[in-house]
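Quick sanity check, Signal recognition particle receptor FtsY:
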Amino acid sequence: MGFFDKIKKAVLGEKKVDETPKEEIVEELEQSIEEIDKEDGLETKETVVVEESKEDVTVEEIIDSKQEEPKLEQPKEEIVKEVVVEEKPQDTVQKYDKGLEKSRRSFGQYMNELFANFRMVDDEFFEDLEEALISADVGFETAMRISDELQEEVKLKNVKKKKDVQATIIEKLVEIYEEEGIEENNELNIQTDSPTIMLFVGVNGVGKTTSIGKLAKRYKDQGKKVLLAAADTFRAGAIDQLVVWGERAGVDVVRHNAGGDPAAVVYDAVEKMKNEHYDILLVDTAGRLQNKVNLMKELEKMKRIIEREYPSAPHEVLLVVDATTGQNALIQAKEFKNTTDVTGIVLTKLDGTAKGGIVLAIRNELHLPVKLVGLGEKITDLEAFNPNQFVYGLFKDLMEDYDG
Ligand SMILES: Nc1nc2c(ncn2[C@@H]2O[C@H](COP(=O)(O)OP(=O)(O)OP(=O)(O)O)[C@@H](O)[C@H]2O)c(=O)[nH]1
C-alpha cells in the first residue's frame, strides 16, 4: 500500500466513503419523502423545502423540521434514520475538508508554482522550496528541516523526477506527525470517575469564549452536567458573552461583576461543582500577555484554589490561538508556554484562513499537542484534532495527484 493510501485509509476507512455533498443527500431525502407522500396522497412541497437562506443548514435540522410533519410515520423515519447513520462518520471528514479548503488551495498553489519551472533539484530549487514552505506558514524551522531532509533523501535515493520530489516533500510534512519518540496525546484529559476541570487561556479575540461554548454544548449533549466560570473579569463584555454561550449550550455559568477577583469566581465555581455534582467545569480566564507576571500569578492563584478541592485538577490548561494570525499564533503559543503549564492548544478559525500550515509549525517547534480545532462559527464547529484528518484535509489534492 502506498504511503498516502495509508493516510487515506486512516481517514476514510477501508471502504471509499460516499462523498455525496450534503445538498444531494438532502435532495435525495426530499425526493424519497415526496414519493412516499404521493403514495400517501399528501402534498409535501412546502413542508420539506429547505430554506435557501440557511446556507449551512444541517441534516439534523432538516430532519427535525420533517419530524414535525403530520402523517408520515414509519417509512419517513426509516429514511431519516438512514441519513443520520450515513451522515455521521463523514461529517467530521467533511468539516475538516471544508475547514481546510483555503489552506489546501493555497498550499497547492505554492507547490504548483514551485514546480511550474522545475528542471532539477539543485541549490536554487531548495531555496525556492524553503520560500514556498515559509509562505505556506509551516514556520521557518519546519521549512528548513524539510528542506534538509529532502536534500538527504535526494542524495540517498537519487530522487530526480518531479513527481518523486513532490511526493517526498508531502511525505516529509506528514512524517512530522508520525515521529517516534515524541509523545503527543491529542485527546482531552477527561476524567471518567471524577470531575474534570479545564482552564482556557489566550489573548482577547482569539475565540476562547466561543470554543468554551462549543465544548460545553458537546459535553451537555453527551449527558454531562457542565458548568462555566467567567473568570475573565477584566472586561464586562467577556462575561456577558460567556453567559450568552452558556444559554446557547444550555449550561450554567458562574459570574461576578467586571473588575472582580477572577480567583473568587473560580472559588465559587469549584464550590458549586462540589455541592451540585457537576461533571465538567470550563474556566474562561483573561489572557493579558502584556503583563506576564500578573498573568502568571493570577493563573497560579486559580490553580491553587482548584487543587485545594480537586488535587489532580486542572486536568487541562488549554491555550486558544487564532490560526488566521499565522506566525503570531506561534509566537503567542511560545510566550504562553514559557509563562504557564499549557497542556494543549485549541486552534480556532482554521476555516477562515489559508494559514493551516501553522499546525505543522506548532507541532514541530513547540511540541505542544493541538487538542481541538475550530472549523467554523456554529456551535457544532469544534472538532477534536485528528492528525490524519488534518493532514488529509491539507494535502488531499496533492496526495491524489502523486499516489494515484
Ligand atoms: N470562522 C470562525 N470564527 C470563529 C471561530 N472561533 C471563534 N470565532 C469567531 O471569533 C470571534 C472572537 O471569538 P471570541 O470567542 O469572542 O473570542 P475571545 O477569545 O473569547 O475574545 P474576548 O472575549 O475578547 O476575550 C467571534 O466572532 C467568533 O465567532 C472558528 O473556529 N471559526
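Posting the structure with no commentary besides this: Residues 74-99 form the longest helix (26 residues).
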